[in-house]
Amino acid sequence: MGSGVFGPGFERLAQALGGMPDRVPLVAQMHEFAMGWTGSDSSSFYTRADLLASGIIRTAEQFGFDVPSLGYDVYNIELEALGQPLVFPAGSSPVSAAGSILVRSRADLANLRLPTPGEAGRMPFVLEVHRRFREQTGVEPAIQFCAPFSLATLARGYAGFMEDIALDSGFAHELLDFLTERVIAPWINAQKAALPEASAAVGADALCSPPMTSPTIIREFSIPYILRLRKLCAVPVSVVNWWGESALPAATDLLDLKRQVASGLIRAQDPDVERLGVGVFKEYAARHGLALELGIGEQLIDRGPVSAIRARIRDCIERAAGGGRLILYLTSLSAGTPQDHVRAAIEAVKEFGVYR
Questions:
Q1: Rounded mean pLDDT, 55-68
Q2: N or C end of the chain: which has fewer CB within 10 A?
């Protein structure tokens, strides 16, 4: 476990994955919030490992987060290494340059610059972020990567890739094969070689979520490639961030697919949890012996009021904390998220989440 101020938090999180800690732990997607709170500009924060690692750690310490949740613009790392130009908007993480699409045709795929794993683009930045984070916390966080479906969508453009799936599935699979075997797996393995203490690799694949996709698309164009990564990589691979249960006839239509690529944990988040209720997800996790991570949506944390934030967190805990194996997650704190709303969320978890 971690040393220093975050040692108890890392231990609490580890205990929650398998049982009942002293209270419900809280994690967050907090890198943009840390950028804003530390007064950094985007182009510096997402290119200087010292600023990002220390910024997240300092923010977590000052606000009283259980752990400093390490994050960055995960969807861009392999994409940029392939040659995609990025821009750094004020107050936001990097995004692809407008109108720039790497793969407009099969010819473009054949001509892509194959990145040197660990050396291309900002891959060295990611490795240095991990080194500094481990040095300052005593913990090696999970390796992160952009999952094949989302990377294909970004490289091809959403409309182009959806058209491929519908009209030229052979090309869609060709692109997924290339990205899985020649880009993502080598990058995961390069991270593992540089970060030997890392025990997991977690993929970001939100672009594969309903209603943007369907269970049929997920079964054919996402799951097989995540499972292939498990065979190709030197570290256990999982994906946990699909959302969209409330867009389907039954929540289990997506939860059963999530379970195939997760690893001991199911994440459910707003708007699905808000629409369907906590009980649907608690029952599913308990039935399958999984830890449950419930994501509180950014709209509530951004807009408040504090009373609504506290009431929502209390309700989630009361309905899902029984028996343990519960983690709460703030889904996306932006640079402009009100600081008093973040503090209120943290204080509510500490007040209501204690196991007696």
A1: 96
A2: C
Angstrom distance (rounded) from CA 353 to CA 348: 8
For 68, 206, 253, 286, the CA distances from 331, given in Å and listed in that order, are 14, 12, 22, 22
pTM: 0.95
Looking at domain 1-30+266-356, which CATH architecture does it have? 3-Layer(aba) Sandwich (3.40)
Sign of CA dihedral 11, 13, 19, 21: positive
The answer for 287, left when phi > 0, alpha when psi is -120 to 50, beta otherwise, is: alpha
CA 214 to CA 31: how far, in whole Å?
Answer: 30
Give the mean model confidence (pLDDT) for residues 246-266.
97
CATH number for the domain running over 51-64+68-138+140-263:
3.20.20.210
The answer to whether residues 100 and 83 touch, using CB atoms and an 8 Å cutoff, is: no
The pLDDT tens digits of the residues spanning 185-218 come to: 999 999 999 999 999 999 999 999 999 999 999 9
Q: How confident is the model at residue 1 (pLDDT cuts 50, 70, 90)?
A: very low
HSE, side-chain direction, 13 A CA sphere, residue 9:
22
Q: Are strands 86-87 and 95-96 parallel, antiparallel or unpaired?
A: antiparallel
The C-alpha atoms of residue 161 and residue 137 are separated, in whole angstroms, by 40
Residue 341: count of CB within 10 angstroms of its CB:
20
Question: Could you please report the per-residue DSSP string of 22-64?
Answer: SB--EEE--HHHHHHHTT--HHHHTT-HHHHHHHHHHHHHHHT
Is residue 216 within 8 Å of residue 224, measured between CB atoms? Answer: no
Structural element, H or E, at residue 265: strand 265-269
